[in-house]
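pinned: reference chain
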Amino acid sequence: MTKNYACLAMYPFDELVGAYEGLWRVVGPDLPWMPSALHWPDDVHATWLDPACQLSQTCGWPLATALRDQVRVVGSFVYDVPEADGYCYRSVLLARRNVSFDNEMKVRFAANSRDSLSGWISLCAALGIQPNELEKRTTFTGGHVASLRALHAGVADVASIDSVTLHHVRQYTPGLVADLHQIGVGPLVPSLPIVVASTASDAQVRQVRGALARAVTDPSIHDDLYRLRIRGFVPLGPADFEALLDLVIA
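pinned: its structure tokens
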């Protein structure tokens, strides 16, 4: 893809596409140099280092590791979910109701990917187990919803789920979590960071921050923001994500 684009597709629910596009319609007039419409890729991870991607939402762990110095951090949305505290939130550890913890070494886990802050790093940190030890009992599913399906199907016993994703699943596909129960939460971490291309100037970063801050208070998209569970925006920089590296047990 060579044409420039912007992407806000980290929560890939069809029911939310219209709400994100409503948000972007308010943001756009303040950023005439940005694409006028959002792009909806099959693989959002591929957008993070795509030179054509002018704005994207990524995951905190890749930002603190592989994406360091490769993108510019704009900030994070403040989400209206029970596990949120300001711009930070916790993932939710869910288990099948009939799973036995009598022999913990037999408990099976599901995680979306090894570079997921909410699905993998938070799981390891919450359990106090090194990633290289836990992955022996983990099925990597490719997505939070897929991890929930693995629990629902009995393929895995426990998973750590992004709390915003969990809200949307409860809203749109409640049957997927009906037989699950919460057994814990992950550490408090920044919510998904919004980033722009490394070529963006300081002035452009400030403009994006201002546009997003204004958009999340715009009454004309109140219903869209409610559906997205967005109730604020906080400007952040790379230093705000550096502490995440301490979550991995040495």
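why pinned: The helical segments are 17-27, 60-64, 117-127, 131-134, 144-152, 163-172, 202-215, 222-228. The longest helix spans residues 202-215.
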